[in-house]
């Protein structure tokens, strides 16, 4: 599920939920709900995270296990 990827990406970059939430201009509580799968993450935030982490949207949503975006 995509929410596991959100947590894994954040942890791989040694970030706290609060830091990612600030970058997304949301609250830590809302971001936490994205990671837990309680709240659907809006597409514009998925795009922002893909750019931030340098991965494809397909990777975040679990359509591929290859993190790098196609060139």
Automatic annotation (TrEMBL):
- Its protein name is DNA-binding helix-turn-helix protein
Q: What top-level branch of life does the organism fall under?
A: Bacteria
Q: Which UniProt keywords apply?
A: DNA-binding
Stored Pfam families: HTH_3
Q: Which InterPro entries match?
A: Cro/C1-type_HTH (IPR001387), Lambda_DNA-bd_dom_sf (IPR010982)
Which CDD domains does UniProt cross-reference here?
A: HTH_XRE
Membrane spanning segments where?
A: none
Pinpoint the HTH cro/C1-type domain residues: 6-60
SMART domains xrefs: HTH_XRE
Source organism phylogeny: Bacteria, Bacillati, Bacillota, Clostridia, Eubacteriales
Keyword Hydrolase assigned to the entry: answer is: no
Q: What GO MF terms are annotated? A: DNA binding
């Amino acid at each position: 599920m995509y929410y596991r990827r959100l947590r894994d990406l954040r942890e791989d970059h040694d970030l706290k939920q609060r830091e990612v939430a600030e970058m997304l201009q949301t609250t830590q509580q809302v971001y936490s709900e994205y990671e837990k799968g309680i709240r659907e993450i809006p597409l514009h935030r998925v795009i922002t995270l893909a750019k931030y982490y340098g991965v494809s949207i397909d990777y975040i949503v679990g359509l591929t296990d290859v993190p790098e975006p196609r060139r």
